[in-house]
Write a structure and sequence with these properties.
alpha+beta, Multidrug efflux transporter AcrB transmembrane fold, Gyrase A, domain 2, four-stranded antiparallel sheet, 13 helices, about 15% strand
């Protein structure tokens, strides 16, 4: 029996030390990425904390089949994201929002956040521009030479060609202004060639484009025709024959998703839904920095007060709760860096709120432990029973909070979603920290009665009230 008790003690001590080691590792990870020379996982700050431009566009979906609105809005989002990425904006956010008000025609809005961009007119011009869709013939020999030269330079050997390299791409004059439409089809459909059920992209030209396309394909059979969108090559099908009639098929072993993406890219010459700029807002970097500093100060003060309360009121168990709370904070910060979560002022408020909520489970457990200690139970037995008796209340409280976060995220605007996401993650992590970290550390402490030595007196003063 003594050997068994000793073995259990070693196991409990091992798990406690492992928990502390993992907590220290997470804390070190956060420290390195905050204060280290090279930050691989920086915090992703929202517009209200970093400064920039906030644009809201309203889409006109009155002439669109309601069943197609969702898909077209998603295409619109991808179009705008592509334009902004080429613009060079760091960490842009583009998201679709539906009006929460019940009306005859539900409003669809596109919210665009551009951190660091304070020239709204420049941002609006970039988003509203017409993208360049080009078709270029490929010189296979020149392309192979360019690829070989690039691979040598990548390996660290700098090679200067004896003469100017030949551009492997030749302009054909065929651009997106001649393209009428591009659609995902499957071979076997009316007018679609290729292997049965193979995903393909069917394109249709206007009259002028059809004549130009026929000339290009007739004079360059066997060559590849590269398709460029805003200077980026998105496909390079081979010309198998002269193509007349203003219609063509692009095939090449696509998956349905790849073919759909290609069709969408080809249609980027025009926005799928008309949009109108309804509001703009510019937030200066100085204001964002001030909000961030005040938020961090509020979090630090709130955290210090919570720790002080737990230590003064619960003594030794309170110290265990403080360790669990510190681990909770470091885990949350690590998740912010790894997911990464876009931290806004509302999200920062949600995080500060969850710091106070993180000790709720500990308080419920400690109050149950009081009752067991009064009945003469030892500290370890009181902790085990206390956790069992408090579990139902902890579960119900956290589930209701989590449901609230889900509802806010589902129906809220971008600002509310930032709060709901951080709040929901905090609820889950705080519950796990209480159930895993606090319990592991409490049961690893020496098993004492209320008045058994110093530890017993600490338990008595903290939980024996």
């Amino acid at each position: 029996m003594a050997t068994e008790i000793g073995g259990n003690m070693i196991v409990r001590l091992f798990y406690a030390l492992l928990t502390l080691a993992l907590s220290a590792a997470v804390a070190f990870f956060v420290y390195q990425n905050v204060f280290g020379p090279d930050t691989n996982y920086p915090f992703k700050l929202g517009l209200d904390l970093s400064g920039g431009s906030h644009l809201v566009y309203e889409a006109d979906t009155s002439e669109i089949n309601p069943d197609e609105v969702s898909e077209l809005m998603d295409v619109l989002r991808v179009v705008i994201e592509r334009r902004i990425n080429i613009f060079g904006v760091s960490e842009p956010i583009v998201q679709v929002e539906s009006s929460s008000m019940v009306s005859d025609a539900q409003k669809q809005r596109l919210v665009v956040e551009l951190p660091g961009v304070t020239d709204v007119s420049q941002a609006v011009a970039e988003i509203g521009r017409t993208p360049l869709l080009e078709f270029k013939l490929i010189d296979e020999e020149a392309l192979a030479a360019a690829i070989a030269l690039e691979s040598i330079n990548i390996e660290g050997v700098s090679v200067t060609p004896s003469e100017d390299p030949v551009d492997p791409y030749t302009n054909t004059g065929l651009t997106g202004r001649y393209l009428q439409s591009a659609q995902l089809q499957f071979a076997g459909q009316a007018g679609a060639g290729g292997i049965s059920n193979e995903p393909i992209v069917a394109i249709t030209w206007n009259a002028e484009g059809a004549a130009l396309f026929e000339e290009i394909t007739g004079n360059n059979t066997g060559k590849r025709l590269a398709i460029f969108l805003d200077g980026e090559e998105i496909s390079s099908p081979r010309i198998n024959e002269r193509i007349s009639g203003g219609q063509a098929v692009i095939s090449g072993g696509f998956t349905p998703d790849e073919a759909r993406d290609l069709a969408q890219n080809l249609n980027f010459g025009a926005l799928p839904v008309p949009i109108e700029l309804v509001s703009t807002q510019t937030i200066g970097a100085t204001l964002g920095s001030e909000v961030l500093e005040k938020g961090m100060l509020a979090g630090a003060v709130g955290f210090a007060l919570v720790m002080m309360f737990m230590l003064l009121w619960y003594r030794l168990p309170g110290l265990v709760a403080v360790v669990a709370l510190l681990t909770y904070v470091f885990v949350m910060l690590a998740l912010f860096q790894l997911i990464p979560v876009v931290l806004t002022a509302a999200g920062l408020a949600g995080f500060i709120l969850t710091i106070g909520m993180a000790v709720d489970a500990n308080v419920l457990v400690f109050e149950r432990m009081k009752e067991e200690l009064r009945d003469g139970k030892s500290s370890r037995e009181a902790a085990t029973i206390g956790f069992k008796r408090a579990w139902s209340a902890i579960r119900d409280g956290n589930v209701t909070s989590l449901l609230s976060a889900v509802i806010l995220f589902w129906f809220g605007t971008s600002m509310v979603k930032g709060f709901a996401l951080v709040f929901g993650i905090g609820v889950i992590v705080s519950m796990l920290s209480a159930l895993l970290i606090t319990r592991t550390l409490l049961v690893a402490l020496p098993d004492k009665k209320r008045s058994d030595g110093l530890l017993g007196r600490l338990y008595e003063s903290g939980l024996g009230k």
